[in-house]
């Protein structure tokens, strides 16, 4: 049975070196989700997120939107949350409509 929701929980650093592996995990999860499924990326254990990581999350959000699936991040805190807020994407990645990253 295919789950309606999948959570991916990366840890450590998401940067130019590690973002491609996260992208692969996200793409695989989206491919497995049914229409109107939900993909959650839990950033609770991520301690650093650079522009490559932000780009990966933005592409994942776009791909989920195109597929008719829901995408959101949760658990962002500290410097990770600051990076998302400073770049103006925190709310968008948290699901829009005022969702909390």
Q: Kindly state the percentage of residues in helix.
A: 40-55%
User: Numbering strands along the chain, what is their spatial order in the largest sheet?
Assistant: 1-3-5
**Proportion in β-strands:** 15-25%
The secondary-structure element order is EEHEEHEHH
How far apart the termini lie comes to 29 Å
User: What does the radius of gyration come to?
Assistant: 12 Å
Low-confidence stretches: none
Q: Give the oligomer, counting copies of the same chain as homo and different chains as hetero.
A: single chain
Q: Helix count, per DSSP?
A: 4
Biggest sheet details: 3 strands, parallel
Mean pLDDT score, rounded? 92
Shape by Cα distribution = globular
Give a count of the beta strands, DSSP E runs of length 2 or more.
Answer: 5
> How does the helix and strand content classify structurally?
alpha/beta
Description:
The chain has a three-stranded parallel beta sheet with strand order 1-3-5, covered by helices on one side. It has four helices and five strands, in the order E-E-H-E-E-H-E-H-H. Helix content is 44%, strand content 23%.
Summed up, what is this model?
With 101 residues, the protein is α/β, with parallel strands linked by helices. 44% of the residues lie in helices and 23% in strands. The strands form two sheets. Strands 1-3-5 form a three-stranded parallel beta sheet, with helices on one face. The protein has a two-stranded parallel ribbon with strand order 2-4.
Which terms would index this structure?
single chain; 101 residues; alpha/beta; 3-stranded parallel beta sheet; two-stranded parallel ribbon
